[in-house]
Design brief:
By secondary structure, the chain is mostly helical. About 65% of the residues lie in helices and about 5% in strands. The protein is built from seven helices and two strands. A hairpin with a 5-residue loop joins strand 1 and strand 2. The longest helix has 18 residues, at about 50-65.
Length: about 150
């Protein structure tokens, strides 16, 4: 039977920071990992069962404390989107409508974006170009930084 290793202070700090904004790269940097290796280290930390368990436990506790569910969030975003998409009429000095426009198109767009992501309606793709020598150099830097930690 294998004994579970306790979380290191840096891993505990990573979890604390991850709970702030759910951004693994930024949490790794704020927890003291090298900025060069932060993306890799953040993802590696999120793949560790002990860290996953602690994050999930904290999220559940926060959800209970706030009494706020995913359904509540979805309802609130939909309400905000609907309010933001209302049409407003612009009138001249005689009271004639000269133009109509969306009340707050930027907020409406953000709400639609968040809802689309939440519902899995689209997948964000990123393209990275790198030649072999760059990749090798970058990987060596990352490995060196991880070894130094």
């Amino acid at each position: 039977m294998t004994k579970k290793k306790p979380l290191t202070d840096k891993q505990k700090r990573f979890i604390d920071e991850y709970m702030v904004d759910s951004n693994a790269t930024q949490a790794a940097i704020r927890a003291g990992y090298s900025p060069k290796a932060a993306r890799v280290q953040g993802q590696e930390n999120l793949s560790k069962p002990a860290i996953q368990y602690e994050i999930k436990s904290r999220q559940e506790a926060l959800k209970e404390k706030l009494e706020y569910t995913a359904e509540d969030w979805t309802r609130d975003v939909l309400e905000l989107k609907n309010r933001s998409m209302k049409e407003i009429e612009l009138k001249d000095e005689d009271g004639n409508v000269v133009h109509t426009e969306t009340k707050d198109p930027q907020t409406a767009h953000k709400c639609l974006d968040m809802l689309g992501k939440r519902l899995g309606l689209f997948i964000e793709k990123k393209q990275v170009e790198m030649n072999i020598s760059d990749r090798s150099s970058w990987l060596n830097d990352v490995l060196k930084d991880m070894k130094d930690e």
